[in-house]
Amino acid sequence: MSDTKDMNAPLEVPYTDWKPEYLYSQGEVSRFFREIMENKRLYASRCAKCNLTWMPPRGHCPECHDSTEWVPLSGEGTVRSATYCYFAGMAGDLVRHLELPYVLALIQLDGCDTYLCHGVKPPRQAMGDIVTGTRVKAVFRDERRGSIADFYFEKQS
Length: 157
Prior knowledge:
five-stranded mixed barrel, about 160 residues, mainly beta, three-stranded antiparallel β-sheet
């Protein structure tokens, strides 16, 4: 008998709880996240050439590829489309702080030409309060970390 091991047999490696840490950059849109985190403000990007205002912001205009400039927003907007969600699904951080059901909506923020897909906290846990045309405003979490989940929307009074 030989003590040699079969080198073609599957190699089993014990699992260890390895949690790598990553440092990544928000790049050209860093100001958007920094304004949310530090100043509770929403900013969009505007193309001076096309005069289109983008939300979420872009470093360069998707239409003409010119660079954009930052413009402050009021944080208020209009729901253009909405659906009630009865489970968290893959939304992760965005809905972790919202009770079920929450609303996932396309929101056109005042002054913007595009829509932001984001969570809306309905005033009560029943369908029908958030519909197309509802006016909403951004609400910022107390603890922010520079993420799109640092704010959500509520129906304006």
